């Protein structure tokens, strides 16, 4: 069993942490039954290093920005598709990139007092570390026969667009971040890492099989995009959203619908990751980040 921990006050995720996660997964695959990602700080993680993103955008280092986002995406996908189980044991603030790590782990053993969500829209960004992709994937899996296909997508879109944060681990089930019947809540925070270790061993002993990347994600294209854009315009006109909020929400809708597709289409995870990364970097290149960062 291998455990990766870091001990900064806010648990900011930067290049060193991402490299550490990838190295830990590699070591776990060679020598251990699995990996637990956790820390003993005040919070699990307040998200990615926003200051670095801002600096790269200001200095117009767009290739570096693309590489930084690509590194984050590659890391969460490495966790999802590793050869051994990867279990997250979050607590306290688990926002942005921390939430994206949760979405891509094999299992989450969260402290009851965990506050998690994709908060990037509050900073004038779209989730670029795989969070948008994962919500589209889950919305695709939630489509029910006889119900409107765009309903799960609309719900997932609103969760990101309003930067909702679960006020407890239990509420994270309702937001679709944690999976009912799979992810666990640990009432005693000091026991979450021990429970995560047990979960890794149980998954390994049952015969863990490395997952295969998905290429059957149903995106809805222009029909769903039109409905989302109409809703965004209504919120902007009613002064429920600022002009900049509406602009970012439109970019989010574009990604979550799979781009400008004429009809519903099955796409791969990598297709959606590339789309969200390109939109993120293009937004930065056009100087659209400033309004969001001015709120900090």
Describe the structure.
This protein is of the alpha/beta class. It has a domain at 2-119 and 165-211: Alpha-Beta Complex (2-enoyl-CoA Hydratase, Chain A, domain 1). It contains 12 helices and 9 strands. The chain has helices spanning 15-31, 50-58, 62-80, 97-104, 131-141, 150-161, 169-174, 192-205, 222-237, 243-256, 269-285, 290-293, and strands spanning 2-4, 35-37, 86-88, 92-95, 107-111, 114-117, 184-186, 217-219, 265-267. The strands form 3 sheets. A 5-stranded parallel sheet has the order 1-2-3-5-7, with helices on both faces. Strands 4-6 form a two-stranded parallel ribbon. The protein has a two-stranded antiparallel ribbon with strand order 8-9. β1, α1 (15-31) and β2 form a beta-alpha-beta unit. Residues 289-296 have low confidence and may be disordered.
Secondary structure elements and their pairing?
Blueprint: E1 2-4, H1 15-31, E2 35-37, H2 50-58, H3 62-80, E3 86-88, E4 92-95, H4 97-104, E5 107-111, E6 114-117, H5 131-141, H6 150-161, H7 169-174, E7 184-186, H8 192-205, E8 217-219, H9 222-237, H10 243-256, E9 265-267, H11 269-285, H12 290-293
Parallel strand pairs: 1-2, 2-3, 3-5, 4-6, 5-7
Antiparallel strand pairs: 8-9
Helix pairs in contact: 1-3, 3-4, 3-11, 5-6, 5-11, 9-10, 10-11
Summarize the structure.
This protein has 296 residues and is of the alpha/beta class. Helix content is 50%, strand content 10%.
